[in-house]
Q: What sequence folds into this?
């Protein structure tokens, strides 16, 4: 998604560089963090019996010769059935209308640009810019190349019974809204995929409403109240990350990228109006204390850490 779709969000200056193709780094005004390309190389592909070809860390970089490399070819049956968000299987024959890589593809109503720069197209399909994963095809991802998601990081200060901020090691403690995913049972941020033609801003509100407030199951009147409140609460946010996500669903030809936006309730009153209720893809939802001991899906912990650092909170 283009950054101009975030007119209300403060955006820092991000630069993305490949520090060996196994690591993607993002820097923002002196802040630096790394996303290791490890979960994308897990031996078993999620929700399938497919096994990836094992890629040692020293052979992740495409520039390193790896003549033994024989990636497993896998695209889920669900994706091959062409749900609305899925691209055609272009390796079985050319699409009626060619896909436009590294560009805004208006024909398919999707942005195929990567947040980390221009990616290569090899034998007609995109090549994962971070490195080998042990699998070709799209796995369970709909798009060839980058598949864009949006992750809202909703925070507030943890407070004691008297309303005072809870402190640890001289720093205030943050809480985030986390959901437990139905598919893998891991805890994660309540985000989701950006639908064709949709904006990141709308996706952030929609996914939080559906997964953390169960907006799909409430009455029309209650859903309207939820949407009006979310419109106000999500009016301002801070972009904390945009780039490649080290996701177990990634393949050599399809990968996850995300924009993560922090919506902070400094007073603690705004989100008290809502009752957290898991819905859609979420099994459970709750406020979770932020610390280095958290365990979250994919590299969501890295995103939460960035938010904690920005708020000078306990980590």
A:
């Amino acid at each position: 998604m283009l950054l101009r779709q975030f007119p209300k969000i403060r955006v820092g200056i991000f630069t993305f560089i490949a520090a060996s193709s196994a690591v993607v780094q993002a820097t923002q005004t002196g802040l630096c963090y790394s996303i290791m390309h490890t979960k994308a190389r897990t031996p078993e592909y999620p929700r399938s019996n497919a096994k990836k070809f094992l890629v040692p860390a020293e052979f992740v970089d495409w520039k390193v010769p790896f003549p033994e490399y024989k990636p497993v070819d896998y695209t889920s049956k669900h994706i091959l059935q062409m749900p609305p968000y899925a691209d055609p299987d272009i390796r079985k024959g050319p699409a009626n209308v060619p896909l436009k890589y590294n560009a805004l593809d208006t024909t398919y109503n999707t942005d195929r640009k990567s947040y980390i720069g221009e990616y290569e197209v090899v034998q007609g399909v995109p090549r994962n810019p971070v490195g080998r994963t042990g699998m070709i095809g799209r796995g369970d991802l709909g798009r060839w190349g980058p598949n864009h998601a949006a992750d809202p990081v909703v925070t507030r200060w943890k407070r004691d019974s008297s309303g005072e901020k809870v402190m640890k090691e001289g720093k205030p403690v943050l809480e985030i809204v986390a959901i437990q995913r139905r598919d893998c049972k891991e805890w994660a941020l309540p985000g989701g995929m950006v639908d064709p033609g949709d904006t990141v801003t709308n996706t952030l509100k929609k996914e939080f409403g559906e997964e953390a407030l169960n907006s799909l199951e409430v009455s029309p009147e209650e859903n309207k109240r939820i949407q009006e409140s979310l419109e106000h609460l999500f009016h301002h946010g801070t972009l904390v990350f945009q780039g490649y996500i080290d996701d177990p669903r990634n393949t050599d030809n399809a990968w996850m990228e995300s924009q993560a936006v922090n919506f902070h309730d400094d007073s603690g009153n705004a989100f008290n109006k809502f009752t957290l209720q898991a819905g859609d893809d979420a099994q459970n939802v709750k406020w979770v204390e932020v610390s280095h001991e958290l365990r979250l899906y994919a590299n969501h912990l890295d995103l939460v850490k960035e938010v904690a650092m920005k708020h000078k909170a306990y980590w």
Q: What stands out?
A: Residues 157 and 174 are 5 Å apart (CA to CA).
